[in-house]
Amino acid sequence: MAELKTLRNKASVIQFLSSVENEDRRKDSKALLKLFKEVVKEKPEMWGTSIVGFGSYHYQSERSKQAGEWMLTGFSPRKQNLTVYIMNGPKRYPELLGKLGKYKISTGSCIYINKLSDVDTKVLQTLIKTSVKEMKAMNKIK
Hints:
Shape: globular
Number of domains: 1
CATH architecture: Alpha-Beta Complex
Number of strands: 9
Number of helices: 4
Radius of gyration: 15 Å
Helix content: 25-40%
Largest sheet: 7 strands, antiparallel
Order of helices and strands: EHHEEEEEEHEEH
Structural class: alpha+beta
CATH class: Alpha Beta
Distance between the termini: 31 Å
């Protein structure tokens, strides 16, 4: 069984976000950090080398024997876009997605946003808050 490479670590979130090369992406990332902190009310932590995560839960894969800790939500300033992680899947929230603005989603937990001004941040806040609340309930986290 392969070991999970994306683990929570002690790297500096601020230092990571300050190192984002694209100035607009760096500004959007710092705005996302503020938004997530306000909504999730958890301390941001680095997961792997490029994901800013908030909170955590224990998971057990249904497809393999893999188990471990994973973030409740988070984001990553990728070269192509800003990636927002809605761990229980953004497709669960079609009404909110319909109001979000310009984005793409994957089959999993990712929402891809080119720039923060492409989306309604109030809707994004609601999406994150709703997802985290459901994740905490599903995983019996207070």
